[in-house]
């Protein structure tokens, strides 16, 4: 088990549910959570889709590293949901490693992610069509695998179930009806 004081970094493919699991985990662990994409959008005053359209993917990736660093330097944010591509950059993985972090891959099937991508209101500039997204999904698995923990988002599990499972298995927190046992 990792140190309970470690920061939690959630990674995984687009549409897997990183932000929702982060919110539940924040409630269970009573720790602040932060969403890297939300920080970028707020700080830049621009949506990610517009940022990529106007400045290109490379600029977006540079900003991702810049804001990830800022988040990691700020000790208050102890649960961080990354954007699906942030973990692909070696510099970001090294940065995360250099801080005390427990990294968690929320793993799922391509079809599950694809369904959520289509149901979600979030506009995703990396999504062109199903075939291209499937290729991206396959390419990225080998890097998501490098995370410390892997949690399978089985279809029968809700995001809350997964957050509870993480609290129990990663942090040995006993759960009682969705709450921490006192
Ligand atoms: C991206 C995933 C998005 C967002 C950006 C790029 C990616 O976040 O960071 O559109 O390259 O996979 P989500 O994983 O929350 O969709």
Keywords for this structure?
Rossmann fold; five-stranded parallel beta sheet; alpha/beta; two-stranded antiparallel sheet; 182 residues; binds shikimate-3-phosphate
Summarize the structure.
The protein is of the alpha/beta class. The chain has helices spanning 18-29, 36-44, 48-55, 57-73, 90-98, 110-119, 130-144, 159-171; strands spanning 7-11, 32-35, 77-81, 101-107, 149-152, 175-176, 179-180. Strands 2-3-1-4-5 form a five-stranded parallel beta sheet, sandwiched between helices. It has a two-stranded antiparallel ribbon with strand order 6-7.
Structure notes:
- By secondary structure, the chain is of the alpha/beta class.
- The protein has one domain (4-180): Rossmann fold (3-Layer(aba) Sandwich).
- 51% of the residues lie in helices and 16% in strands.
- It has 8 helices and 7 strands.
- The strands form 2 sheets. The protein has a 5-stranded parallel β-sheet with strand order 2-3-1-4-5, sandwiched between helices. It has a two-stranded antiparallel sheet with strand order 6-7.
- A hairpin with a 2-residue loop joins strand 6 (175-176) and strand 7.
- Helix 1 crosses helix 8 and helix 2 crosses helix 4.
- It is globular and about 45 Å long.
- The two termini are 21 Å apart.
- The mean pLDDT is 92.
- Bound molecules: shikimate-3-phosphate (S3P).
- Shikimate-3-phosphate binds at residues 14, 18, 37, 48, 83-85, 124-126.
């Amino acid at each position: 088990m990792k140190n309970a004081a470690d920061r939690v970094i959630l990674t995984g493919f687009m549409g897997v549910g990183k932000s929702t699991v982060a919110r539940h985990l924040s409630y269970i662990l009573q720790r602040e959570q932060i969403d890297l994409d939300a920080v970028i959008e707020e700080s830049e005053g621009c949506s990610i889709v517009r940022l990529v359209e106007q400045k290109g993917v490379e600029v977006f990736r540079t900003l991702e590293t810049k804001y990830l660093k800022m988040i990691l330097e700020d000790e208050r944010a102890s649960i961080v949901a990354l954007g699906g591509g942030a973990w692909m950059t070696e510099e970001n993985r090294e940065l995360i490693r250099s801080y005390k972090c427990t990294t968690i891959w929320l793993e799922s099937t391509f079809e599950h992610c694809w369904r959520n991508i289509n149901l979600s209101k979030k506009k995703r500039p990396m999504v062109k069509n199903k075939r291209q997204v499937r290729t991206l999904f396959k390419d990225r698995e080998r890097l998501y695998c490098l995370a410390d923990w892997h949690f399978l988002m089985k279809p029968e599990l809700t995001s809350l179930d997964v957050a509870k499972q993480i609290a129990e298995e990663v942090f040995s927190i006993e759960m009682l009806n969705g709450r921490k046992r006192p």
